[in-house]
Structure formats: C-alpha cells, structure tokens
Design goal:
Helix content: over 70%
Number of strands: 0
Oligomer: single chain
Number of helices: 5
Distance between the termini: 42 Å
Number of domains: 1
Structural class: mainly alpha
C-alpha cells in the first residue's frame, strides 16, 4: 500500500506544479494565489507520501487531502478536475493495495499450513 499510495501523491505533486503556469494563463487568477495554492498542495502531497507507511492515520490524512484538493477548485476551477482524477486514483490505490496485501497474507498462511503438514508427515 505504501508504494502505490505514495506514488499517487508524488504524481499529484508533479502534475499540480506543472499546472500552475497554465492555470495562471487560462483561469485569469492571480499568479501569486495560484502559485501559493499549487506549492502548498505539492508540499503537502510530498510530505504525506513519506508518511504513508507509518500508520493508518496517514491514509485518512491522504483521503482528507484529496477532498481539500477538490475544494481548491473554488479558487482555481481546474482543480476540480485534477482533484477528482487524483481522488479516484487514491481510493483505487487503497482498494487495490488492500486486495493485494490480503491475497499475499492468504498465500503465506497456505504455505505455512503446507509446511506444517509436510513436516508432520516426515516426522511420522
């Protein structure tokens, strides 16, 4: 989960930083406001990407962050679209990573049972 969700956040930071100049030109919004908003979003995304493996709280914080990025669309309408895309990727990443971790755990349990059964068979 750590790798997948962290990657989503890093890519979000990169895309938001790259979108600052077009947002200024196309949205007719103050350059300093867009720069500050984009910079804050990028920094928070990078910090959160480093925190993902440290507990479930980071996943909750990342989820709230996705909602805040969408809410940034009030200031820069382009953020509605970017925020929605990355929110979908975020929640899809959590779902896929949970599924993979669950399957890995089941495989490990099956392997342990098989090893225990073969050890009992050789002891007899």
């Amino acid at each position: 989960m750590k790798r997948l969700c962290g990657t989503v956040l890093i890519m979000e930071a990169v895309i938001v930083l790259l979108a600052i100049v077009p947002a200024i030109k196309l949205e007719h919004v103050s350059g300093s406001a867009v720069g500050i908003l984009g910079g804050v979003i990028a920094v928070v995304a990078i910090v959160l990407s480093g925190m993902i493996g440290r507990g479930r709280w980071a996943l909750y914080a990342g989820s709230v962050f996705q909602l805040l990025v969408i809410a940034a669309g009030v200031m820069v309408p382009m953020m509605y679209v970017l925020g929605a895309i990355f929110a979908i990727l975020w929640f899809l990443g959590i779902w896929l990573a949970s599924k993979v971790e669950r399957e890995q755990k089941e495989r490990e349990e099956t392997a342990q049972k098989a090893n225990a059964g073969s050890e009992a068979g050789t002891a007899a």
